[in-house]
Sequence to fold (256 residues):
Amino acid sequence: MPEHSAILLYLVIFLYGILIGSFVNVCILRLPAGESLLAGSHCTRCGHRLSWYDLFPLFSYLWLKGRCRYCGAGISPQYPLVEALNGALYVTVFLAEGVCPKSVLHCLMASALLVISVVDWRTFEIPPSCSLFLLLLGVAGTALDLPHLWEHLIGLILVSGFLYLIYLFSSGRAVGGGDVKLMGAAGLLLGWKLILLSFFLGCILGSVIHVIRMKVSKADRVLAMGPYLAAGIFICALWGERFLDWYLRLALGNAP
Fold:
C-alpha cells in the first residue's frame, strides 16, 4: 500500500476509534448507575441537553477548552483521554494484524476491555453486559476459526473454571464473579493457549503495578484485577501467538 494511502487509512481508523470512544465514555458513566445508554447526552453539572455540535469526539473538548458551553463548568479530562485512547487502540490493532475481520473483532474487544478497566478500577465491579458483549465476539471469532473450534471451547472454561473454583471456595473473597465471566468470554474469543497466557500476564502486571502503587501512593491492599486482566487479554490477542512461537522455537532449540 502506498505510504500516503496507509496514512489516510490509519487516520480514518483513528477517527472511527474516537467516535466509538465517545460511546465508551457513555458506557463507563451509565452502566454502573444502571442508566440507559440510549438517552441523550447532557451536562453533568447544569443538566442542559447537549447539541450535536457539542458532541464531536475529542474536537469538541478542545474547541470548548474543556468547559461546558452553557454553564462554563469544567469537563472531566476523562472524555478526551478515553476517546483518544480508544482511537489509538484501534490503530494499534490494525497495525499489528492488518485489515481483516479479526482486526474488527479485536477493535470491538478493545473498547469493551476499556469500559471494563475503567469501571472496575472505580467500582470493583465488571459490568455483566460487557462480558456478554465479549462472549458474542467470542462466538463470532469462533465461527471465523472453525478448524480450531475445540481450542476456543476449551478456552471458554480453562481459566474461568479455575477462577470459579477459587470463587466458590473463598465465598467470593479471593476473586470476583466478574473476573470469572470476563476470562470465560475472552477465552472463547482467544482460545485456550492465549487466554492462559493472558491470565499469567495479567497476574504479573497486577502484582508488580499494585505493589508499586502501594509503596508510592499508599494504595489499599485490595486491587481491581479487571484492568490488569484486560491488559493481558489485549496484549496476547495481538502478540501472544508470536510470543508462543518464539518461546517454542527457543525451548526446542535448547532441547537435548
